[in-house]
Amino acid sequence: MYLVWLEPGTTPEQVRSTMLDTVAPALLELGVHGLTMDLDDEFAQIPPLMPPPDGEPQVRAIVSAWVDAYDYRAPIEAVLERHAVRIAGYQAVESLYRDYGGNEWSAPRDWPDGTRSPGILTVSLIEQKRDMDFEEWITFWHTKQSPMSEAIQPRCRYVRNAVFRSITPDAPPYKAIVEEGWPTTDHVTDPMKFYCGNGSTETMNANISTMMEHVGTFIDFDTFRNLTLSEWIIKSVV
User: How deeply is 99 buried, as exposed, middle or buried, from its count of CB atoms within 10 A (0-12, 13-18, 19+)?
Assistant: First the structure.
């Protein structure tokens, strides 16, 4: 998985055209087994759940490429570096906790490769909490946070990418890249919908309290980053 920073001033439309029309075909020519791009394009222009620090350059794309072994990544990085001002690469272990059609919030995927997924995607970049060892941290994330958030949020897809190691110099020390799909932008921007309040302020506030308690247990908020993006599944992994 690669975080991609583009030239300052790149418009959302240019993000989409650069990544889909130029970068994606070049990566497919390399024979990758699967390819997904999460893009800061014109269809994802809603504020992130937690705004970044002022002046911090923002990730504009996340590229996931499936290959036989990470040893063969050099051509992939060469393609990305031709268009990016910076990339950060990670060898990740994917855990598809929930896919489209797995709950009440979406039907099974019926759109073809190369088409934007419906709704909106949020991506969380998470470092291991400083006062937790790895086993304690990932166990809480996987056995406490995942089922709790599944129960109180309208999430239609949830991909847990646990970072095994960084594979490019100076990559931020993220240990998780979490991709969460939501049915509509309203489900992200309206707290009543985002926390499944169902019209009850009491229920919404209780769910917010539960979420904040859990998130604060395994996340250091000073290093946490959240992005609002469009999901483009370019080539499905088969």
Answer: middle
